Amino acid sequence: MEFHQGRLLDHVHLRARDLAASKRFYRAVLAALCHQPTFETEQAIVFDELYIDQAESYRSHVHIAFQAVDPVAVHRFYEAGLANGGKDNGEPGERPYHPGYFAAFLLDPDGNNIEAVYHGPTTRSSADVVIRPLETDA
């Protein structure tokens, strides 16, 4: 089984009802996953390919999954999100999507479904990130 990531999306743009609340939420949950803003103004905040600004007319409603380095990071993400305006949408735990899939889900201040996921022990390529589960003795 292989997963190819990093080839399709250039960036994701979220439109927030309350930009200050979204900035607090995303600073907290992404810091829990060891990410800091790459750019910020009064009108927007950016974390690598994620761009968030103030909604003038419509808000986004999407599902975004962020990669976590281990299950501990998934727990940190979840707790940071709850403490910063997020709502529970699935406590940290294993999911049936594939062996080793460990995730937590939160609703951000605008109702976007935000996930942190750890895919289990993996190796990664470089050109387009290829994720292959490690063989283990069962």
TrEMBL record:
CDD domains: VOC_like. Signal peptide: none annotated. Gene3D superfamilies: 2,3-Dihydroxybiphenyl 1,2-Dioxygenase, domain 1. Residues 8-119 form the VOC domain. InterPro entries: Glyas_Bleomycin-R_OHBP_Dase, Glyas_Fos-R_dOase_dom, VOC_core. This is VOC family protein. The lineage of its organism: Bacteria, Pseudomonadati, Pseudomonadota, Alphaproteobacteria, Hyphomicrobiales.
